[in-house]
Amino acid sequence: MDIEEYDVIIIGAGPAGLTAGIYSARNGLKTLILEEKTPGGLAAEASLIENYPGFIDGISGFDLVNRMVEQAKKFKVQINDLERGIKLNLLDKKKIVKTNKNSYTTSAVIISSGCHCKHLNVAGEEMFRGKGVSYCSVCDGPLFRGRRLIVVGGGNSAAMSALYLSDLASDVKLIHRREVLRAEDTQIKDLKRRGVKVMLNTEIDEIKGEQTVNCVVLLNNKTGKTEKVLVDGVFIHVGEVPNSQMAKEAGVDTDRGGFIVVDAKQRTNIRGVYAAGDVTNCTVKQIGTAVGQAIIAAIEVYGFIKRPYYYTGS
Questions:
Q1: N- or C-end of the chain: fewer Cβ atoms within 10 A?
Q2: Among 248, 263, 300, 287, which residue's Cα sits nearest to residue 18?
Q3: Looking at the predicted structure, is the pLDDT value of residue 314 above 60?
Q4: Are 216 and 207 in contact (CB under 8 A)?
Q5: Could you give the C-alpha distances from 28 to 22, 31, 78, 254, 278, in angstroms and in order?
Q6: pLDDT at 310
């Protein structure tokens, strides 16, 4: 069977991948996006995005991603969801991308594989995953209407989750292991206005239950005291881990945190291989920065393929 060839293959269909696809295809490049799940990435799980330009009243992550998907399809981007990359051969001029379904060749690769949620690694977390333990408030929040919930984390994602769940649950507590939240001031004010109880210097020591979660043991890391709190659900938002292992195995440089190292033109250490979005070492993890990186990467890929003289010696 002949191996299908593309000008550019993009790994990951979050905001970065979809944007890169739009720009690449619009510039006339035969473009394939591979996504191991469904398009959107972590952005699709955001209940409300208020800081993306152009949406005065905000927009849900799901709706924003769907608009990006439709725009990509308008420019004839091939999006293969539920197709997982398993191996990359990036060192030759014609690069090979192997998936669980097929193999492809391409002149350039843009890695936009994003991140996945960190786990707490506490007793009961894995046992009750999907039985009261969740990492996505938008996905699972409606299942907990009128229930008692705890959200774990101190950043914008945790605050956004707590705010969203406060419209559904009877009681929401936000716990954070440090002395101050890292979330934006507007979100912190909204938490107070919505009646979300914020518990600082507090960690989950254990998640308990029978068939489903029914309580957690909280540890105050300043006093050392523990407290048993009755809850029906635990939503965990304590950061992300980059999905960079496949790229790293193919020779792409990563930093100590596993994030792909890129230069100002989104180039990696391998010629013809670029990266954009949350998987990179960009310190600001926002949809806006992911989109910006993806635009740069796609434009650079176009130059790399169509104007190779410009890249001589780079």
A1: N
A2: 287
A3: no
A4: yes
A5: 10, 9, 13, 31, 26
A6: 64
Instruction: Report pTM.
Output: 0.85
pLDDT, one tens digit per residue, over 196-206 is: 999 999 999 99
Token pair for residue 4? 């299908």
The answer to whether residues 140 and 236 touch, using CB atoms and an 8 Å cutoff, is: no
User: Locate tokens 């890391």: which residue?
Assistant: 221
Q: Is the pLDDT confidence value at 172 over 60?
A: yes
CA–CA gap between residue 224 and residue 234 (Å, rounded): 22
What is the residue type of 175?
I
